[in-house]
Recover the amino acids of this structure.
């Protein structure tokens, strides 16, 4: 597990940022190949040979072996570290939150943000925003309830379920999903930002900022 | 890990059936609490106390500890068994397919089936079917490509990624998603059905069968 992995990722993507954040916090060297999924870079024959599902991130080991799905990467990278408990029940709880993230959170919180910042202002997809925001708030309410009595999502300590849920929650407001009514989530976001070697998502470029401002 | 778990589940649900199939194949005793999610049974205060995300299945240990998310249950139940490899990379590959299942497969294959069989024939949700079926076929094409050169999804042997993907793939046609063009998937479905102690989904009741027939 000590080789230098290569991550093909799009920096503004929360799914990609998760993997970078864990690699930074593990202090593990890696190569990053910027992949503009917003400009069709995941639809080229070379990329589809890596991931037929046409999504970033993709992790490649030095021996060429490939791993897809951001949360599977978090599990593999965190194996044996403090970011993933050894106890089977605690691991299952971390996984439960990570499946929650991919099924009940990301398709609403992340997709609302993507539509606001990365699609044209006249995109027909913008008609989906009210429904997406309603579902986003339902997911945030589940998180708020947990965080009212727990400091973290991965059992007793900060770990990969926190990393998975942090990525898009931290920028939910970019999709028009305000965090104002979730005090426990805001406290947790601050705790995550205070962990050693934390790095946030990069600033959005000017075009994205303009679309986000026009979507508010 | 030897206590008798209780599973709150809706029998026709593939997500619930996954858990039952693994429990049967492990030969592990369990209690099943039938929970009619199609009739609001996951929205009661008692159920929301178990799972604030209002979804089945929910697994409860004898000591009252609760686990949500079907694929997290598969991981926990399979720990230490032949259904989940011990090797970290092989486990990550199984998880990758399970995240694929929840993000790229279930929201299309399972939701198309649910709309056809469990919503009224005049439901406005039926307008989503063409888009859902298109995405369902994209997911099946990714599976077909893998199965063209691999017998299973969990590395070298049948395991929990196969169980996770089998559940809704086996009944994809009920959502109007034909498997006719996927020979490798059909061969794999037959291999899964041939594993020891396999059990299939229960037969649909008459109302569901009538709606499915009218949706074809």
């Amino acid at each position: 597990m000590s080789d230098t992995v290569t991550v093909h990722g799009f920096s503004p993507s929360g799914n990609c940022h998760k993997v970078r954040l864990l690699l930074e916090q593990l202090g593990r060297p890696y190569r990053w190949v910027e992949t503009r999924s917003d400009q069709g870079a995941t639809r080229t024959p070379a990329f589809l040979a890596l991931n037929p599902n046409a999504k970033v991130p993709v992790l490649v080991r030095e021996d060429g072996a490939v791993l897809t799905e951001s949360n599977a990467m978090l599990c593999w990278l965190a194996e044996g570290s403090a970011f993933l408990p050894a106890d089977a029940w605690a691991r299952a709880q971390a996984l439960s939150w990570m499946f929650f993230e991919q099924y009940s959170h990301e398709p609403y919180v992340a997709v609302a943000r993507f539509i606001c910042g990365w699609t044209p202002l006249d995109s027909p997809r913008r008609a989906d925003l009210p429904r997406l925001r309603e579902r986003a708030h339902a997911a945030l309410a589940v998180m708020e309830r947990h965080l009212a009595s727990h400091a973290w999502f991965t059992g007793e300590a900060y770990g990969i379920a926190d990393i998975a849920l942090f990525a898009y929650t931290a920028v939910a407001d970019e999709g028009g999903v305000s965090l104002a009514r979730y005090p426990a989530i805001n406290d947790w976001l601050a705790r995550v930002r205070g962990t050693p070697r934390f790095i946030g998502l990069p600033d959005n470029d000017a075009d994205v900022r303009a679309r986000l401002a026009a979507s508010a």
Chain B has two domains: 5-78, 88-215.
